[in-house]
């Protein structure tokens, strides 16, 4: 079977979501945007990326928002955008790496979503983020050190997500398939009516 076929199992997962969104959390470079889009295709669900949505509503890029208004304003906007997106029912939402650190966002997602942490090691993350320079937090003298500090601070919080999938240097289709399998198991074991 190819990686893009929607099966009866995938349709059942959608039913068992009972209106919840599938929300990907994790550090920059974990693959939330890339894998999230594939999972949405597999499950025939809409896909939205919170950074892209923020850029649409603000008509600014994420780096411009950080530069013009600072990180606290970006975080406030991010929390509002995610709160709105979770009203829209079953869909796959890729969040920006800092979104799940916001306590009110975590509380909301506990009720409205199945959350999945894409957990990657430092080498994998650095390899992936080094391809683009559009992450303001990494515009530092030692981006690897910044990433390590973010791992130390954020991984205990990401671990609160409903599910964890290990993101590693294998094809993105494999990670997407593992995520769907994890969702299948989880929605069977934790049904909601
Ligand atoms: N499984 C994978 N294998 C190889 N490259 C990947 C994989 N997942 C993501 N990438 C690449 O890594 C980079 C960061 O991925 P992205 O989805 O933007 O991460 P995030 O949204 O978590 O910051 C992108 O260039 C993407 O194409
Ligand atoms: O980790 C973070 O705080 C951030 C992650 C980015 O998104 P990705 O995780 O999709 O790279 C983006 O929201 C912003 O640069 C801040
Ligand atoms: Mg992303």
Draw up the topology in text.
Blueprint: H1 8-17, E1 21-25, H2 32-43, E2 47-49, H3 50-58, H4 62-69, H5 71-85, E3 92-94, H6 103-112, E4 113-119, H7 122-129, H8 143-158, E5 163-166, H9 172-189
Parallel strand pairs: 1-3, 1-4, 2-3, 4-5
Helix pairs in contact: 1-9, 2-9, 3-5, 4-5
Bound molecules: adenosine-5'-diphosphate, shikimate-3-phosphate and magnesium ion (MG).
Magnesium ion is lined by residues 32-33, 49, 51, 94.
Overview features:
193 residues; alpha/beta; Rossmann fold; 5-stranded parallel beta sheet; globular; binds shikimate-3-phosphate; binds magnesium ion
Describe the protein's architecture and organization.
The chain is of the alpha/beta class and 193 residues long. It has a single domain (8-183), classed as P-loop containing nucleotide triphosphate hydrolases (Rossmann fold, 3-Layer(aba) Sandwich), CATH 3.40.50.300. It is built from nine helices and five strands. It has helices at 8-17, 32-43, 50-58, 62-69, 71-85, 103-112, 122-129, 143-158, 172-189, and strands at residues 21-25, 47-49, 92-94, 113-119, 163-166. The chain has a five-stranded parallel beta sheet with strand order 2-3-1-4-5. Helix 2 crosses helix 9 (172-189), helix 3 packs across helix 5 (71-85) and helix 4 (62-69) packs across helix 5. The longest helix is centred in the last third of the chain and has 18 residues, at 172-189. The chain is globular. It starts with 7 loop residues before the first helix and ends with a helix. The relative contact order is 0.20. It binds adenosine-5'-diphosphate (ADP), shikimate-3-phosphate (S3P) and magnesium ion (MG). Magnesium ion binds at residues 32-33, 49, 51, 94. ATP binds at residues 29-34, 135. Keywords: Amino-acid biosynthesis, Aromatic amino acid biosynthesis, ATP-binding, Cytoplasm, Kinase, Magnesium, Metal-binding, Nucleotide-binding, Transferase. This is Shikimate kinase. One of its GO terms (molecular function) is ATP binding. It catalyses: shikimate + ATP = 3-phosphoshikimate + ADP + H(+).
